[in-house]
């Protein structure tokens, strides 16, 4: 009986050793010898290519605005900013998710000269102003390694403004209090001034 137990124990060890050896060999071959495919999307790009980036133009077709649908900032309790740069009260949002063309456009009322705003919607609206294009091109050009993955997924002006205007961990202290009231920035500064 003792021999049967010993034989069974040794047989299990051999089988497990063979399985482990095969798995280890497969891992080594997969990681070291097989070259990476061009379709690997998990790799971080060394340089951002925004040749297909869509910038907002100053001439938005306002005649067909009732036929077009808009993307907007969604989360505001009081205000909404749409992808044309208009700001409206949440209750005034049209059925196509656009603010009406009679609403305010490219509002920078709560923003300071550094490009930091108190309200998220003002930050997005101000950032969408076509006059800010050169500044935003600088933002894309100076994207740090931390933000390179985020910015590589952005392909238009509205998405860039949404991403830049969100607060980051660098704008808070003690993980629960903002450093300044102007916490939403579209500028190149990584920290709130």
UniProtKB/TrEMBL annotation:
Main location per the UniProt record: Golgi
On the tree of life, the source organism's domain of life is Eukaryota
Topology versus the membrane: Single-pass membrane protein
Q: Report the InterPro entries cross-referenced here.
A: SPRING1
Report any one BP term from Gene Ontology.
positive regulation of SREBP signaling pathway
Q: Where in the cell is it found?
A: Golgi apparatus membrane
Q: Name one Pfam family in it.
A: SPRING1
Q: Which UniProt keywords apply?
A: Glycoprotein, Golgi apparatus, Membrane, Transmembrane, Transmembrane helix
Any Gene Ontology CC annotation: Golgi membrane
The UniProt family comment states: Belongs to the SPRING family.
> What is the protein's name according to its record?
SREBP regulating gene protein
Q: Which organism is it from?
A: Acyrthosiphon pisum (Pea aphid)
Q: What is the lineage of its organism?
A: Eukaryota, Metazoa, Ecdysozoa, Arthropoda, Hexapoda
């Amino acid at each position: 009986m003792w021999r049967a137990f010993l034989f069974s124990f040794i047989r299990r060890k051999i089988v497990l050793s063979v399985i482990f050896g095969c798995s280890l060999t497969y891992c080594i071959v997969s990681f070291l010898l097989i070259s990476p495919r061009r379709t690997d999307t998990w790799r971080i790009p060394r340089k951002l290519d925004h040749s297909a980036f869509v910038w907002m133009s100053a001439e938005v077709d306002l005649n067909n605005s009732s036929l077009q649908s808009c993307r907007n900032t969604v989360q505001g309790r009081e205000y909404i900013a749409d992808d044309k740069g208009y700001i409206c009260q949440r209750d005034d949002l049209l059925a196509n998710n656009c603010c009406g063309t009679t609403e305010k456009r490219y509002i920078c009322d709560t923003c300071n000269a550094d490009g930091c705003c108190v309200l998220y919607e003002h930050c997005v609206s101000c950032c969408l102003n076509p006059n800010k294009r050169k500044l935003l091109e600088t933002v894309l050009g100076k994207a740090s390694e931390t933000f390179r993955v985020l910015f590589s997924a952005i392909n238009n002006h509205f998405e860039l403004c949404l991403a830049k205007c969100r607060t980051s961990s660098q704008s808070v202290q003690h993980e629960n209090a903002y450093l300044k009231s102007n916490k939403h920035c579209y500028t190149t500064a990584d920290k709130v001034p």
